[in-house]
Amino acid sequence: MVQCATRYAAFASLFLLLVGLSACGGNQGSITVSPSSAVLLPGQSIQFAAVSSAGVSATEEPWQVNGVSGGSAATGTITRGGIFTAPSTAPGNPIVISVHGLSGQAAVTLFDPANIKPGTVSTTNNTLVAAYAIAVPAAATVFVQFGPDTSYGFSTSPVSAPPGGGTATVLVAGMRASSSYHMQAVIHLVNGSTVLDGDQTFTTGAIDSSLLPNMTATFTGKGTPTNGIELFSLDPLNGGNQYNAVATDLAGNVIWYYDLGGGGFPFPIKPMPNGHMLVVVAAGGALGGSEIREIDLAGNVINRITLDQVNATLAGVVDFKIASFHHDILQLPNGHFILLADYNKTYNNYPGLPNGTAVAGDALIDWDPVLNTAVWTWSAFDHLDPARAPYGIVNGVEDWTHGNAVIYSPDDGNLILSLRNQNWVLKLNYQNGAGDGSILWKLGYQGDFTLPGQQAPIEWNYGQHYPTIVSQNSSGLFSLMFFNNGNVRLVNSNNDPCSTPGTLNCYSSVPILQLNESSKQASVLSEINLSPAYSICCGDALILPGGNWEYDVAYDIGTPGYSHIQEVAGTQLLWNLDIAGQLAYRGFRIPSLYPGVTWPAVTSSASKVKKQRNAVPPKPFPIDKLP
User: Is the pTM here over 0.85, yes or no?
Assistant: First the structure.
């Protein structure tokens, strides 16, 4: 047995045990100090660790600061466990952390709140988004305030410093094209104080006007629109190369976009709690997509989910293979995604269906993005009658369920699914992944609820879109809002469809229904009747902070080729935004592009490259391609 007389015998023995090397004259391998660099406030402490090339951590090494074991008051001190405490004032020389006799080391920079190093602002892949980089100390956060002048007026969400401190980069989005902006980093330190960077300037790039949606905003002056911006999922049904995933201010100026290229459109795009965007990517003219992307505000793809990837995990587990993602995606509180997908089954000898009928139905997949696997599935074919087809069979294919939205019920952990072509909203037994997928109830004509006699059948949901829970609770007795398109609305006790001779014309509406899950009683609490507007597809509706309502009339047959978004206070119209030539599958108010941040409503003049409504009305949207 070899004896190694060394001052650091305890460390050597531990090191030998961890990396399996000889302590005497052998190759000791490599050691990495983590973090490799740090930015600290005077007197701030941080834990360093030494990790071998085998990835094993050792915590009792004799640490050094600038070659002195344990350090000193002038350069900072470090314990045998690797806890470094910065000096009260910056030394004349750099601070280097190392382990005696080993090559790994880390550099420490002292952050002086009275004399910070200015940040830098640079361009990104998105001509309307800047990258603001600035050094911040450990445990600090930084956000950027920005605007057309030094009063700023807008801000981002805070970004945390890297572990140990260092350069934090904030993506600054929400600016108009070809415009100059001022911006300033605001650093919140761990001691509670705030430090401001100097004012920085940035000029956004130009956008070819042919790429911009054709939008016209109108303010009635009858009230004040709710703060925030609009986020759009636009569908280029008539072709064209405009941007289809955009955010605008209330004046209709594009302040953010994601270029899907080649006529692709978002089906849909939704903000995520982490500040990224979630996009179901559909190709031009398609009614479904083959990929889901998580992107940052600069358009960088952070994560993606593909059809092939999902189908590979479904193989051998379920008896179906999904054909496309479509219409919606839901991120759950646990970080999983509920994917809305579809697939076809062909029926022979099924009552009510001609032999050889291809039926397109929906599936839901609970996708774990950490394990990259499906952990729960649901199929409409297992629970509903494929012969129930209120909208019939088109070109030999029954577009049977046509799911268009899925939301989460936090009270009971179940899912609520909107099936446009069944005129039903379903509640599914999901129970946070432990449920059997059974249908707990069906809301709509021939469903499980009853309406008061004077409300049925005209107030049932027909071709509905975008249900939202508008009460504090989501089970028992609760309230549900949706855009009621009104397709083939039954208007009297004889169940006559709208627009038949002697009946009402078809129309769309925005109701709030109160649902009693125990008694299966429903009633209309309030409603906006949009007659004579009749939107035969798409749309959404929500209650804004402060109580105003906003809704998307995507395809009013009276104004073909146009979509319009409206905000109302009671019956008073406050704001209207017309979109020409692109179908607004969804268009709704969000507080800002950043979680937890609300921007003031912008009603000022349009940007230099904003398009105006065409003198010649756009072509009507093709009905056979409506999403």
Answer: yes
